[in-house]
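Duplicate of #3305? Posting structure anyway:
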């Protein structure tokens, strides 16, 4: 049994599913608390109780369990923790996350980026940052995690041809993905995101450096910043050490902002790509050629119906994904195969010249 204050944890995004699971936890200690991971440091885990962030340690038994399940504690995870006699806080249990944003690392392993996220704001500038292909890459990862994506195009106040760029994206992105062009520094503009900022919601912001993520966070969490971490909701104005990576919005939502997420390169695997390009997969099924590469085959059903650059991006991402999924040995074998093919080609060329 674990006791917790739902209203207090709701401030940092406690979902009903997690709260229910927490009540089922078998814990020996009556002093265990439900907490949210808000930072992962080299030698400690930052956990938040809705008021304070504290450092905690993972119980070796749990660490072993997590390793067996191939899980590492990730920002956004919910855990149970209890203090020992020396006031060290020990994480004793981990609640299975409802959603997990992950990417495939260069070594082919899954890297967890954030857990229990409801909405990902994909922030992209309408200036030089504008890049539909990169956006599709981010989108495929977010959709695969079953997290709702919302595309926020920043710098609408200064960029040129905003309607043209919006139309271009509207054509490329799946129709259910919301798309907004705003000035991230203005509360009036940012108010359009209200439907995703309800109480208990957790958001992450993804986008390149300079895209406007900090500006957007500042505008969304203006009250918190202005009051320097005074607790919302109960008017008691209790002082808090708000975690640097967990921002509370006045609307009752919270934003997870970690350096790991910020510097993230959005590599997708073949399955996650399917989420963003499902129309291509559907068209491919109707293509008259069974092993069509939808590249130059005349009369191909895909090539006629899909934006050419978008199709090229799909093929490129698919190639990248396959490369990542190969083991190093497979890569060496593939390279050797190519060498043989190339050599054979050169030999043939020589024969002709002879
Ligand atoms: N005119 C205008 N400027 C913006 C807008 N959004 C961000 N900026 C400016 O762009 C610059 C970069 O914005 P940041 O919010 O720091 O970008 P970031 O995504 O947090 O960048 P990193 O912290 O490097 O990841 C700042 O000078 C902002 O003032 C916008 O909508 N309109
Ligand atoms: Zn085809």
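Output from current build:
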């Amino acid at each position: 049994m674990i006791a917790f204050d739902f209203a207090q944890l709701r401030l940092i995004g406690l979902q009903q599913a997690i709260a229910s699971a927490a009540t089922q936890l078998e814990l020996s200690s009556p002093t265990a608390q439900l907490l949210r991971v808000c930072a992962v440091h080299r030698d400690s885990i930052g956990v938040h109780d809705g008021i304070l962030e504290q450092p905690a340690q993972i119980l070796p038994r749990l660490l072993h369990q997590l390793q067996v399940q191939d899980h590492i504690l990730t920002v956004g995870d919910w855990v149970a923790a209890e203090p020992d006699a020396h006031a060290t806080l020990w994480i004793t249990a981990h609640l299975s996350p409802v959603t997990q944003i992950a990417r495939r690392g260069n070594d082919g392993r899954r890297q967890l980026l954030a857990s229990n996220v409801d909405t990902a704001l994909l922030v992209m500038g309408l200036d030089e940052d504008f890049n539909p292909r990169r956006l599709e890459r981010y989108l495929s990862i977010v959709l695969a995690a079953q997290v709702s994506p919302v595309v926020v195009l920043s710098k609408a106040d200064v960029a040129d041809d905003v309607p043209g760029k919006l139309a271009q994206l509207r054509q490329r992105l799946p129709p259910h993905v919301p798309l907004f062009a705003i000035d991230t520094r203005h509360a009036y503009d940012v108010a359009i995101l209200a439907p995703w900022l309800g109480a208990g919601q957790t958001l992450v912001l993804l986008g390149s450096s300079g895209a406007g993520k900090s500006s957007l966070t500042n505008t969304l969490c203006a009250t918190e910043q202005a009051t320097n971490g005074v607790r919302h909701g109960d008017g008691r104005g209790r002082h808090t050490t708000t975690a640097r990576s967990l921002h509370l919005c006045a609307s009752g939502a919270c934003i997870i902002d970690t350096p790991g997420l910020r510097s993230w390169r959005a590599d997708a695997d073949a399955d996650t790509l399917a989420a963003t390009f499902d129309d291509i997969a559907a068209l491919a099924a109707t293509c008259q050629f069974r092993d069509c590469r939808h590249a130059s085959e005349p009369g191909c059903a895909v090539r006629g119906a899909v934006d050419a650059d978008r199709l090229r991006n799909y093929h490129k991402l698919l190639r990248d994904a396959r490369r990542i999924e190969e083991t190093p040995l497979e890569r060496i074998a593939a390279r050797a195969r190519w060498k043989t093919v190339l050599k054979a080609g050169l030999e043939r060329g020589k024969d002709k010249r002879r």
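Confirmed duplicate; merging threads. Residues 287, 289, 292, 294, 297, 300-302 surround zinc ion (ligand 2) (CB under 6 Å). The radius of gyration is 24 Å.
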